[in-house]
Amino acid sequence: MEDTRFKKRKARAKKILSYLKKTYPIPKTELAYKTPFQLVVAVMLSAQCTDKKVNKVTDTLYKKYTTVDNFAEADFDTLCRELSSITYFRNKAKAIIGSALMVRDNFNGVIPNNETELILLPGVAYKTAHVILGELYGIYEGIPTDTHVRRFALRFDISNDGSLTRISKNLEALIPKTDWRYVNNGLVLYGRYVCPARPHECSLHPLTKIWPEANYRWPKTK
Protein backbone atom coordinates (compact mmCIF):
# COMPACT_ATOMS: atom_id res chain seq x y z
CA MET A 1 0.00 0.00 0.00
CA GLU A 2 2.74 2.43 1.00
CA ASP A 3 4.77 1.54 -2.08
CA THR A 4 1.74 2.20 -4.30
CA ARG A 5 1.15 5.58 -2.65
CA PHE A 6 4.80 6.51 -3.11
CA LYS A 7 4.65 5.61 -6.81
CA LYS A 8 1.52 7.73 -7.28
CA ARG A 9 3.14 10.65 -5.48
CA LYS A 10 6.29 10.29 -7.55
CA ALA A 11 4.30 10.30 -10.79
CA ARG A 12 2.32 13.36 -9.65
CA ALA A 13 5.49 15.16 -8.56
CA LYS A 14 7.03 14.43 -11.98
CA LYS A 15 4.13 16.13 -13.75
CA ILE A 16 4.24 19.13 -11.41
CA LEU A 17 7.98 19.42 -11.89
CA SER A 18 7.61 19.31 -15.67
CA TYR A 19 5.33 22.35 -15.52
CA LEU A 20 7.62 24.23 -13.12
CA LYS A 21 10.73 23.61 -15.25
CA LYS A 22 8.98 24.86 -18.37
CA THR A 23 7.34 27.88 -16.74
CA TYR A 24 10.10 29.00 -14.36
CA PRO A 25 13.32 27.76 -15.99
CA ILE A 26 15.76 30.09 -14.23
CA PRO A 27 15.67 29.89 -10.41
CA LYS A 28 16.05 33.41 -9.02
CA THR A 29 14.83 34.96 -5.77
CA GLU A 30 12.73 38.12 -5.84
CA LEU A 31 14.49 39.37 -2.71
CA ALA A 32 16.61 42.43 -3.47
CA TYR A 33 20.31 42.42 -2.57
CA LYS A 34 23.68 43.58 -3.89
CA THR A 35 26.17 41.81 -1.62
CA PRO A 36 26.24 38.21 -0.40
CA PHE A 37 25.53 39.05 3.23
CA GLN A 38 22.64 41.29 2.21
CA LEU A 39 21.09 38.16 0.69
CA VAL A 40 21.58 36.29 3.97
CA VAL A 41 19.85 39.14 5.79
CA ALA A 42 16.99 39.30 3.28
CA VAL A 43 16.34 35.56 3.54
CA MET A 44 16.31 35.80 7.34
CA LEU A 45 13.89 38.72 7.23
CA SER A 46 11.59 36.90 4.81
CA ALA A 47 10.63 34.25 7.37
CA GLN A 48 6.86 34.72 7.91
CA CYS A 49 7.04 37.97 5.98
CA THR A 50 6.47 38.76 2.30
CA ASP A 51 9.34 39.46 -0.07
CA LYS A 52 7.60 42.70 -1.03
CA LYS A 53 7.66 43.90 2.58
CA VAL A 54 11.28 42.82 3.04
CA ASN A 55 12.36 44.64 -0.12
CA LYS A 56 10.63 47.81 1.04
CA VAL A 57 12.57 47.74 4.31
CA THR A 58 15.92 46.74 2.81
CA ASP A 59 15.71 49.41 0.12
CA THR A 60 16.60 51.89 2.86
CA LEU A 61 18.51 49.50 5.14
CA TYR A 62 21.03 48.47 2.50
CA LYS A 63 22.10 52.03 1.86
CA LYS A 64 23.57 51.97 5.36
CA TYR A 65 24.57 48.32 5.73
CA THR A 66 26.52 46.82 2.84
CA THR A 67 29.25 44.55 4.17
CA VAL A 68 29.50 41.82 6.77
CA ASP A 69 31.41 44.28 8.97
CA ASN A 70 28.58 46.84 8.72
CA PHE A 71 26.10 44.30 10.11
CA ALA A 72 28.54 42.89 12.69
CA GLU A 73 29.09 46.35 14.09
CA ALA A 74 25.43 47.38 14.03
CA ASP A 75 23.86 48.70 17.22
CA PHE A 76 21.14 46.27 18.28
CA ASP A 77 18.58 48.88 19.37
CA THR A 78 19.12 50.92 16.22
CA LEU A 79 18.78 47.88 13.98
CA CYS A 80 15.59 46.91 15.81
CA ARG A 81 14.10 50.30 15.05
CA GLU A 82 15.12 49.98 11.41
CA LEU A 83 13.47 46.55 11.18
CA SER A 84 10.43 47.34 13.35
CA SER A 85 7.91 46.85 10.54
CA ILE A 86 9.15 43.28 9.96
CA THR A 87 7.66 40.35 11.89
CA TYR A 88 9.77 39.17 14.86
CA PHE A 89 12.17 42.04 14.23
CA ARG A 90 13.98 41.73 17.58
CA ASN A 91 14.81 38.06 17.08
CA LYS A 92 15.84 38.73 13.50
CA ALA A 93 18.02 41.70 14.45
CA LYS A 94 19.79 39.54 17.03
CA ALA A 95 20.30 36.75 14.51
CA ILE A 96 21.58 39.13 11.84
CA ILE A 97 24.22 40.65 14.10
CA GLY A 98 25.18 37.23 15.49
CA SER A 99 25.52 35.75 12.01
CA ALA A 100 27.59 38.69 10.79
CA LEU A 101 29.95 38.30 13.75
CA MET A 102 30.34 34.58 13.05
CA VAL A 103 30.91 35.08 9.32
CA ARG A 104 33.48 37.76 10.06
CA ASP A 105 35.29 35.98 12.90
CA ASN A 106 34.93 32.30 11.98
CA PHE A 107 34.70 32.31 8.19
CA ASN A 108 36.99 35.19 7.21
CA GLY A 109 34.05 37.29 6.04
CA VAL A 110 32.94 34.72 3.44
CA ILE A 111 29.47 33.15 3.46
CA PRO A 112 29.91 29.36 3.83
CA ASN A 113 29.10 27.31 0.75
CA ASN A 114 27.77 24.21 2.52
CA GLU A 115 24.81 23.37 4.75
CA THR A 116 26.94 22.08 7.65
CA GLU A 117 28.58 25.46 8.21
CA LEU A 118 25.64 27.64 7.21
CA ILE A 119 23.32 26.19 9.85
CA LEU A 120 25.85 27.19 12.50
CA LEU A 121 24.85 30.81 11.86
CA PRO A 122 22.18 32.18 14.20
CA GLY A 123 18.81 32.33 12.42
CA VAL A 124 19.84 29.93 9.65
CA ALA A 125 18.17 26.53 9.41
CA TYR A 126 17.64 23.99 6.61
CA LYS A 127 15.34 26.14 4.48
CA THR A 128 17.38 29.33 4.82
CA ALA A 129 20.66 27.52 4.18
CA HIS A 130 19.48 25.98 0.92
CA VAL A 131 17.97 29.20 -0.39
CA ILE A 132 21.34 30.86 0.22
CA LEU A 133 23.31 28.00 -1.37
CA GLY A 134 21.17 28.02 -4.49
CA GLU A 135 21.09 31.78 -4.94
CA LEU A 136 24.73 32.58 -4.11
CA TYR A 137 26.55 29.49 -5.31
CA GLY A 138 24.21 27.62 -7.65
CA ILE A 139 24.43 24.68 -5.26
CA TYR A 140 21.22 22.69 -4.88
CA GLU A 141 21.87 20.06 -2.23
CA GLY A 142 18.38 20.28 -0.75
CA ILE A 143 14.86 21.57 -1.45
CA PRO A 144 13.92 24.55 0.76
CA THR A 145 10.35 24.40 2.05
CA ASP A 146 8.61 27.67 2.86
CA THR A 147 4.89 28.38 3.25
CA HIS A 148 4.24 28.14 -0.51
CA VAL A 149 6.07 24.84 -0.93
CA ARG A 150 4.36 23.45 2.18
CA ARG A 151 0.83 24.22 1.05
CA PHE A 152 1.32 22.81 -2.44
CA ALA A 153 3.02 19.70 -1.09
CA LEU A 154 -0.01 19.14 1.15
CA ARG A 155 -2.62 20.18 -1.40
CA PHE A 156 -1.22 17.83 -4.03
CA ASP A 157 -0.61 15.05 -1.52
CA ILE A 158 3.06 14.68 -2.26
CA SER A 159 3.71 14.96 1.47
CA ASN A 160 1.57 14.77 4.57
CA ASP A 161 4.18 15.93 7.08
CA GLY A 162 3.83 18.99 9.26
CA SER A 163 7.52 19.78 9.63
CA LEU A 164 9.02 21.96 6.91
CA THR A 165 12.27 19.99 6.96
CA ARG A 166 10.44 16.65 6.71
CA ILE A 167 8.46 18.00 3.75
CA SER A 168 11.81 18.89 2.14
CA LYS A 169 13.02 15.33 2.69
CA ASN A 170 9.79 13.90 1.26
CA LEU A 171 10.18 16.01 -1.88
CA GLU A 172 13.84 15.11 -2.21
CA ALA A 173 12.87 11.43 -2.20
CA LEU A 174 10.33 11.98 -4.99
CA ILE A 175 12.27 14.30 -7.31
CA PRO A 176 15.62 13.65 -9.02
CA LYS A 177 18.42 15.68 -7.44
CA THR A 178 19.24 17.27 -10.80
CA ASP A 179 15.83 18.95 -10.69
CA TRP A 180 15.77 20.14 -7.06
CA ARG A 181 16.62 23.68 -8.16
CA TYR A 182 13.21 24.18 -9.77
CA VAL A 183 10.96 23.22 -6.86
CA ASN A 184 11.13 26.06 -4.34
CA ASN A 185 11.48 28.87 -6.87
CA GLY A 186 8.75 27.49 -9.08
CA LEU A 187 6.18 26.87 -6.36
CA VAL A 188 6.89 30.25 -4.73
CA LEU A 189 6.24 32.09 -7.99
CA TYR A 190 3.23 29.92 -8.84
CA GLY A 191 1.77 30.54 -5.40
CA ARG A 192 2.50 34.23 -5.53
CA TYR A 193 1.13 34.98 -8.99
CA VAL A 194 -1.18 32.14 -10.03
CA CYS A 195 -2.68 30.32 -7.06
CA PRO A 196 -2.73 32.28 -3.77
CA ALA A 197 -3.25 30.71 -0.36
CA ARG A 198 -6.84 31.77 0.28
CA PRO A 199 -9.42 29.13 -0.74
CA HIS A 200 -10.73 29.83 -4.23
CA GLU A 201 -11.91 28.08 -7.37
CA CYS A 202 -8.77 26.96 -9.16
CA SER A 203 -9.86 23.98 -11.23
CA LEU A 204 -8.57 25.69 -14.37
CA HIS A 205 -5.13 26.44 -12.94
CA PRO A 206 -2.32 24.52 -14.66
CA LEU A 207 -1.23 22.44 -11.67
CA THR A 208 -4.78 21.70 -10.51
CA LYS A 209 -5.50 20.25 -13.94
CA ILE A 210 -2.77 17.73 -13.20
CA TRP A 211 -4.59 16.56 -10.07
CA PRO A 212 -8.13 18.02 -9.82
CA GLU A 213 -8.58 16.88 -6.22
CA ALA A 214 -6.27 19.72 -5.17
CA ASN A 215 -9.13 22.12 -5.88
CA TYR A 216 -10.81 20.87 -2.70
CA ARG A 217 -7.78 20.62 -0.42
CA TRP A 218 -6.91 23.79 1.49
CA PRO A 219 -4.42 23.19 4.31
CA LYS A 220 -4.32 25.75 7.09
CA THR A 221 -1.50 28.23 6.84
CA LYS A 222 1.21 28.24 9.51
- If classified by CATH, what would the architecture of the largest domain be? Orthogonal Bundle
Order of helices and strands: HHHHHHHHHHHH
CATH topology call of the largest domain: Endonuclease III, domain 1
Q: In angstroms, what separates the terminal alpha carbons?
A: 30 Å
Helix/sheet category: mainly alpha
User: What would the average pLDDT be, to the nearest integer?
Assistant: 96
Poorly predicted regions: none
In brief:
The chain has 222 residues and is mainly alpha-helical. The protein has helices at 2-23, 36-45, 51-64, 68-72, 76-82, 89-106, 115-118, 126-137, 147-155, 164-174, 181-193, 206-210. Helix 2 (36-45) runs antiparallel to helix 6 and helix 2 (36-45) runs antiparallel to helix 8.
